[in-house]
Specification:
The chain is an alpha/beta fold and about 550 residues long. It has two domains: about 160 residues, Rossmann fold, CATH 3.40.50.10940; about 375 residues, L-fucose Isomerase, Chain A, domain 3 (Alpha-Beta Barrel). The chain contains 17 helices and 20 strands. The strands form four sheets. Strands 1-3-2-4-5-6 form a six-stranded parallel beta sheet. Strands 13-14-18-17-16-19 form a six-stranded antiparallel beta barrel, surrounded by four helices. A four-stranded parallel beta sheet has the order 9-8-11-12, sandwiched between helices. Helix 3 links the parallel strand 4 and strand 5. It is globular, with a radius of gyration of 23 Å. It starts with a strand and ends with a helix.
Length: about 550
């Protein structure tokens, strides 16, 4: 692979390559060796196809990595790339999409996003975020993924893209709702819930938009207002101030509550590398502060950006987020102590201020409540997936993980199955406890709301969270992030490559139902509610069987 020589010309059979990175220097330095190796394998595959690869920006000895690390840097890099050149965005780590989005919006050559199939650093998560951002921006692109960049699936499609500027995948698992018939019961209930949301309206509290450059996670006001949801734009500085106003005694009460419930914290004394008691108590204060601010503004749900800004002031918000999303959680009283706020139910939190996940969670909560199903819902990163090495199942098993938001109601053992570990220092300088657990086996409905240009769209399907032996769980944790909660997910009727081809986000929403029949019904009600809110709905995978059976059973 050649380095860019400063000439803005386009030779035949030449491909340019860029790599978007994190905004945090520590993360870029840690992930750079994996990115370098991924680019070596990718470049070799391209060169074996008879093409030359030019890396459009250099590795910097001063920074210790070769990622594009800011929006400004990305704009400058794209100024030097021939606008008609075939262009690959290669990702082996989490990346901030806005670092390269500006340049990609005006690039006229074919674009290919590529990730390595690895759980080590979330390159797959970064690529899916970029794909969602490009979809929202209306920028044409193709996408590919591979473990070693030598398999037939990858190489055949790479050759297609090099020859034509396009590569395709099988998306026959995707069925537009307009082609299906839901049960009369589901349609009636979904329409009723949509009417109530539009009539009564809901407030989405947003503690600063655009976390980690996730352009795909921001819903424009006009699209959101059409669903009956309106943003209350809040500030992380207000959350920080309110956190400082919570008393030590109140924080201690939350900490004692968690201990009594059986949550285990793995603590130490070194702030730089350990989870400390002080970090946990600050998180308890942030939890109380978040609930009080939500009450102040009448919010139905809230999203905390954390990351840039709060990461320099407070421990991570992840323990806070998981508590908020759980029905059984420490009680929070109003400042005058006359009321318990949001008593007996989750206060919906959408991690990383992903507004698409927030809208999805709100709709999910309304549907779950109306069908007498569990209210707790969370987003997860689509982190990775692999065959089961234990032989427990022949199904492909996805690793769904998120640094925050996962409620203990989803864990085997509930609160007693929850553990707190220090967040990794490369991302979280002020530490803070995670809320780790293993998701219990059960029937789930998964979904994702995203923007396809200016149209709100929902993909929805069925799945199962399954139990794997502890050894296999540990293998998967060690291949990803051991400190984070994990769900072993089997998606019904969808292959790995089909899911990757269709999914337009780094996140996926999941919710449990009591049994398969309940999950089939709630999927239909949620699809009907989305449709009534004028969200374009796609039913994915084997859920189509359940929809078809239900419609036949309920047709006159």
């Amino acid at each position: 692979m050649s380095q860019y020589d400063g000439k803005n010309d386009l030779a035949a059979k030449t491909v340019y390559l860029v790599a978007s990175g994190d905004l945090r220097p520590s993360a870029n330095r840690a992930c750079w060796p994996a990115q370098k190796e991924m680019e070596r394998l990718l470049a070799s595959a391209i060169e074996n196809c008879g093409y030359k690869v030019i890396r459009a920006h250099h590795e910097s000895p001063e920074s210790g990595h070769g990622f594009i690390a800011s929006q400004r840097e990305g704009i400058e890099v794209f100024r030097r790339i021939p606008p008609q050149a075939p262009l690959i965005v290669a990702e082996a780590a989490w990346q901030y999409s806005h670092h390269v989005l500006a340049g990609l919006t005006t690039h006229r050559g074919p674009i290919l996003t590529v990730a390595n199939w690895s759980g080590q650093w979330p390159g797959l998560v970064g690529m899916l975020n970029l794909n969602g951002s490009l979809t929202k921006a209306g920028v044409p692109y193709s996408t590919l993924w591979s473990e070693k960049f030598d398999d037939a699936y990858f190489l055949n499609r790479l050759r297609d893209w090099l020859a034509t500027g396009i590569c395709d995948h099988d998306t026959s698992h995707v069925h537009p709702l307009t082609e299906l018939e839901l049960s009369n019961t589901a349609v009636a209930l979904g329409q009723k819930l949509a009417l109530e949301l539009r009539r009564d309206k809901a407030i989405m509290g947003v503690f600063d938009e655009g976390c980690m450059g996730m352009f795909n996670a921001i819903i424009p006001d006009q699209q959101l207002h059409a669903t009956g949801v309106f943003k209350e734009r809040l500030s992380q500085s207000a959350l920080y101030y309110e956190t400082t106003q919570v008393s030590d005694d109140e924080a201690a009460e939350v900490r004692v509550w968690l201990d009594r419930k059986g949550m285990r914290f793995h603590t130490g004394s070194d702030h730089a590398k350990d989870l400390t008691e002080q970090q946990i108590l600050l998180q308890c204060k942030m939890y109380i502060a978040a609930v009080r601010i939500a009450d102040d503004f009448g919010c139905d749900l809230i999203g905390i950006q954390y990351q840039q800004g709060l990461k320099d002031l407070l421990p991570a918000s992840d323990l806070v987020e998981g508590m908020l999303n759980n029905g059984d959680r420490p009680p929070v009283r109003s400042r005058d102590s006359n009321r318990i706020l949001f008593e007996g139910k989750p206060l919906i939190h959408f991690n990383e201020v992903d507004e698409c996940a927030g809208l999805d969670a709100l709709i999910t909560s309304r549907v779950q409540g109306a069908t007498s199903q569990p209210l707790e819902t969370t987003l997860h990163d689509v982190r990775w997936g692999d065959a089961d090495h234990s032989g427990t199942t022949k199904h492909y098993v996805w690793v769904l993980e998120i640094s925050g938001s996962a409620p203990p109601a989803h864990f085997s053992g509930g609160w007693s199955g929850a553990e707190g570990f220090r967040q990794p220092a490369m991302y979280f300088p002020n530490g803070g406890s995670t809320l780790r657990g293993i998701s219990r086996p059960g029937e789930i409905v998964w979904s994702r709301i995203y923007l396809d240009k200016d149209v709100l769209t929902m993909d929805i399907g069925r799945g199962s969270a399954i139990e794997l032996p502890r050894e296999e769980t540990e293998r998967r944790w060690k291949s990803t992030t051991q400190e984070w909660p994990i769900m072993h997910a089997v998606l019904h009727g969808i292959s790995r490559d089909q899911f990757m081809a269709q999914h337009k986000a780094n996140h996926v929403q999941v919710v449990y139902c009591d049994d398969a029949e309940s999950a089939d019904l709630t999927l239909q009600v949620k699809a009907a509610m989305g449709d009534a809110l004028r969200i374009r709905v796609n039913v994915c995978g084997d859920a189509i069987r359940h929809v078809s059976r239900a419609s036949q059973a309920n047709s006159p």
